[in-house]
Amino acid sequence: VECVGDDIAWMKFDSEGVLRAINPEAGFFGVAPGTCSHTNPNAMKTIQRNTIFTNVAETDDGGVFWEGLEKEVDTSVGVTSWKGEMWTPYNRILAAHPNSRFCAPASQCPSMDPDWESPAGVPISAIIFGGRRPAGVPLVFEANNWRHGVFLGAAMRSEATAAAEHNTKVIMHDPFAMRPFFGYNFADYIDHWLSFDEKPGLQLPKIFHVNWFRKGEDGKFMWPGFGENCRVLDWICRRVDNEDCAVDSPIGRLPKPNALNLEGLDSPVNVDALFSVPVDFWLNECKELETYFSSQLNRDLPPPVAEELRQLGERLQQNA
To answer: What is each CA distance from 44 to 1, 36, 81, in whole angstroms?
Structure first.
């Protein structure tokens, strides 16, 4: 697995109808808390030099510290918090701001593709949408078709993170994970995505939705995440190759039983719970989406999206 970029992709179709993407950025601007050699070893190698840190804690020997580095940084040398106050592991305050960052050249990442700066870009075989949903949303599912995939993007909702202006634990609408970044009318943006399905000769990628953050009744994450997410990417790649490893559901195509490689996980995963599609939850999602689309788009809502929402509710009612 090699990297071209970790954030922004500029995409366009080439003369052969293949969707290609470039990374317009020169580096990584990543959230520091939680980043460590276990969760993101390549990021830790990337930031060893030529890196700007903002709102992290500083150790008295000139190093940096944030929550997640407890096993890698000796805090006994003394730590100054992001607020300029002396900090110890016994304090009930955060050493680093929740949205503290590191900014480093992408060229320092060990897994960068050798041609990551090629103007031809990289061909796109799959588009993956995703949000933080503690309940109701399966680990991964595939859109039924391009129009359905565009609907999934427009319908995205996610628990707010430290990078957002909202308090955490709030489930907010975040269409295409682009809510703060739309540069023009939302309805026109959706129409632009929908238009590619009507243009002959285009090789449209499959669209998927992932949710690494579903929690069980005990409040703990049901999926280990981080590097183990490659198991989900493996299934996605197999679906791109049209392998028969998916089954229909009211919300899209889910992995068939035993289709997801779970060998070697540190702890067992409750697959049934991880991929369950609770009908009441999703019927409520439909109501939330109807209200949201009505308030934000009203008569400008593209008819194909309204039809996808109607069909979703119909499929759910049939499975109630």
So the answer is: 17, 6, 20
Give residue-wise pLDDT tens across range 172-199: 999 999 999 999 999 999 999 999 999 9
Sequence-distant (≥ 6) Cβ neighbours of residue 3 within 8 angstroms: 42, 106, 109, 111, 112, 113, 116
CATH number of 123-318, picked from 3.90.228.20, 3.40.30.20, 3.20.20.80, 3.40.50.150: 3.90.228.20
Give the pLDDT band of residue 320 (cuts 50, 70, 90). confident
How many residues does this entry show for the chain?
A: 320
* CATH 3.30.450.40 given to domain 27-108: no
Taking the domains of the chain in order of start, what are their residue ranges?
Answer: 27-108, 123-318
87 closest CA partner among 52, 58, 55:
58
Residue 46, amino acid: T
State in Å, rounded, how far the first CA of the chain is from the last one: 41
Task: Say if CB 182 and CB 189 are below 8 A apart.
Answer: yes
